[in-house]
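Entry, Tuesday afternoon. Goal for today is a structural model of the target with zinc ion bound, before we commit to ordering more compound. Inputs were pasted exactly as handed over by J.K., no edits. I checked the ligand SMILES twice against the vendor sheet because last time a stereocentre got dropped in transcription.
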Amino acid sequence: MGGKSRHDEKKAALAALGRPLSRRARSRCELCEANQGLQPVLLRASEEPELENVLLLCGRCADVVRGGRIDAPDDLRFLEQVVWSEVPVQQAVAVRMLARVDAPWADVTRENLWVDEAVQALADGLDPA
Ligand SMILES: [Zn+2]
């Protein structure tokens, strides 16, 4: 099997997560709750897609998660809530995203935040596909 078929396998595995993922996400972006342009994003490129390493995200959140520029930090204020999510993968991605936000509300959120070690390790290990 070459690289391409592995890639296709991963895409198929990602697609197969559609229903349980939509259920967890309530068919909304798992970060900002937008309901347009949703796509499953694998957060550790080297792993097989599972519910624990995939988020359903809108186009904007997917772009920021993949390292895209943050043009309007105040549009990301939903992070104030999501960094307290009880779903580890949601919390980890929100923590990682918050670390890049340059805004007073983000400073306050970081100061008050408490994240357990497992989630911090997950956040540090993110490598979105
Ligand atoms: Zn979003």
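The two ends are 20 Å apart (CA to CA).
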